[in-house]
Design brief:
The complex is a heterodimer of chains A (about 210) and B (about 140). With about 210 residues, chain A is an alpha/beta fold. Chain A has helices spanning about 10-25, 85-95, 100-105, 120-130, 140-150, 195-205, and strands spanning about 1-5, 50-55, 60, 70-75, 105-110, 135, 155-160, 165-170, 175, 185. The longest helix of chain A is centred in the first third of the chain and has 17 residues, at about 10-25. Chain B contains 1 helix and 10 strands. Strand 8 (about 165-170) of chain A pairs antiparallel with strand 5 (about 80-85) of chain B, so a sheet runs across the interface. The site of copper (II) ion has 5 residues of chain B, from strand 8.
């Protein structure tokens, strides 16, 4: 027998509260004085991190934004069904909710921590699901991947468990890099997409 | 007419109570898969009148090769990883939340991409309530 999803009684209340919150927030200045993401001081410099870009025939890509752009950087892998798509779907939504002019100035680079399973075509298709034209950074050189992660303060580990399943652990932060190659903001897993949108507005307002 | 009304009322009661040993499943959903993403995750909220334990899960091979109960956890070093778990407890006085970054039903080796608007059945096995089939809705977020 099928169990139908039931509508919780609190839903109308939540919708009313959410609507009120949106209406209220629209009254004020939508660009916050302080971002929701983490400001690191001094800002780590990652502009000289260079990895082959699988979306561009393997040509070396430095993780630095173009002038007047923000480059979002994420360490992940395509066999990750829970953590990675949650953050990257929030990125997609956050970019969609920016003004068109600003959205065109946001780029994404996905760095795979699982290059054995993520080949160039797989990673490129995956990364570009979330943001059109996204960079798919992939290296077969473990030292280069480790050095890139270290520059961001990120970590990852790939293990095979007793049953032979591959288990991948990785830092699930999202980073915003400016055109000087500095990490301007770091967002932890679970940051609401509204905060990503307003933080990107904040960065563009501050100058990138 | 009266009989018809009674039938409708009974149907409504049955639908709202869920039946199945007091198990109620709210909002079962899965995120649409990215291109080349070969695994998926299913989320929902489960309540049980007297508490219960979710011990197993299955999907048809037309959806995925295998389904497992999984939990994503943060390590001391701040990395996130997921592992299979033998079961999940549904407290009598609370709810079991399967949500991004925590408990989820992992779909391994998707037969085809999960697309927004699709639905597919998932069979949950509970220690007390036995098998409960839920229709999972695929959506973008
Ligand atoms: Cu999983």
């Amino acid at each position: 027998m099928l169990t139908r999803p039931s509508t919780p009684r609190v839903l109308p209340l939540l919708i009313a509260l959410a609507t009120a919150a949106i209406v209220l927030s629209a009254c004020g200045d939508s660009i916050p004085a302080e971002p929701a993401g983490i400001l690191r001081d001094p800002a780590p410099v990652v502009g000289d991190v260079e990895l082959p870009d699988a979306s561009n025939g393997g040509v070396t890509f430095a993780t630095r934004a173009q002038d007047d752009h923000v480059l979002l950087v994420y360490f992940g892998f395509t066999s990750c069904p829970d953590v990675c798509p949650t953050t990257l779907a929030d990125v997609r939504r956050a970019v969609r909710e920016l003004d068109e002019g600003l959205a065109a100035r946001v780029d994404l680079a996905v760095i795979t921590v699982d290059p054995d399973r993520d080949d160039a075509a797989t990673l490129t298709a995956y990364a570009q699901t979330w943001v059109p034209g996204a960079h798919a950074l992939r290296t077969d050189d473990p030292a280069a991947l480790r050095a890139a992660a270290d520059a961001y303060g990120a970590d990852y580990a790939i293990q095979t468990n007793d049953e032979g399943d591959i288990e991948v652990g990785h830092t699930a932060f999202l980073y915003a890099v400016d055109s000087a190659g500095r990490i301007r903001l770091t967002w932890p897993f679970g940051t609401p997409h509204e905060d990503l949108t307003s933080d990107m507005e904040y960065l563009f307002n501050e100058g990138v | 007419m009266k009989r018809l009304l009674l039938v409708i009322v009974m149907a409504l009661i049955a639908a709202s109570c869920g039946g199945d040993g007091g198990i109620e499943i709210d909002d079962p959903w899965a995120r649409s898969s990215a291109r080349m993403q070969n695994a998926g995750a299913v989320y929902m909220t489960i309540t049980a009148d007297d508490g219960d334990t979710l011990t197993g899960v299955a999907v048809d091979s037309s959806v995925a090769m295998m389904a497992e109960l999984h939990e994503t956890q943060m390590s001391d070093e701040g990395t996130m990883a997921m592992q299979e778990v033998p079961n999940m407890a549904v407290p009598a006085d609370g709810e079991l939340n399967l949500e991004p970054g925590g408990f989820h039903i992992m779909l391994m080796q998707l037969a085809e991409p999960l697309e927004s608007g699709d639905t597919f059945p998932v069979t949950l096995t509970f220690e007390n309530a036995g098998e409960v089939v839920v229709d999972v809705e695929v959506r973008e977020e």
